[in-house]
Amino acid sequence: MHEGIKGRLKDMSLIDIIQVLYMGRKTAAVNIGSEQGAGRIFVENGNVVHARFREVSGENALYNLLAWKDGDFEVEMDVKPEERTISGSAEALLLEGMKRLDESKQGGFDKERLFGVEEKESIHLIKKLIELGILTKKEG
To answer: Is residue 48 helix, strand or coil?
Structure first.
């Protein structure tokens, strides 16, 4: 078993998790599960390269999983992707995911939430990743 972290999506969103992996240029598998089922997202060198949920894979599976507000997640570090079904940049994928969420809710599109690390959940996850030695602090 690869060392990683576990938590709940209500405490740390999938978008925040992908952001941290992107910023650290990490390779990992993010497993998520809820009463809706189970999904898996593969990140390689910070970029999302594959996602699957039920019988769906690729970007549609990713966008479905990004909409989840609750469920359990586990990040397994250094897990290679099963296959490659996504080729867009992490930024473009997250922007599109947020746009789709916004359109479905008819609410405001919050770019600061997408790209900022102001939220305490993001800071908490980053600190935990540093404690585990997955990320390192850059001095200076």
So the answer is: strand
Per-10-residue mean pLDDT for the chain, 140 residues long? 79 89 92 92 94 92 88 93 87 76 57 43 63 62
Q: Which domain holds residue 124?
A: 4-131
- In whole angstroms, what is the distance from residue 120 CA to residue 137 CA? 18
- The DSSP line for 75-139 is EEETPPPS-----S-HHHHHHHHHHHHHHHHT----HHHHH---SHHHHHHHHHHHHTTSS-PPP
Residue 117 within any structural domain of the chain = yes
Contact of 45 with 25, CB cutoff 8 Å: yes
Apex CA 47: angle with CA 43 and CA 51, to 5°?
50
Token pair listed for 38: 């189970």
Looking at residue 58, the DSSP 8-state letter turns out to be S
In a domain, 137, yes or no: no
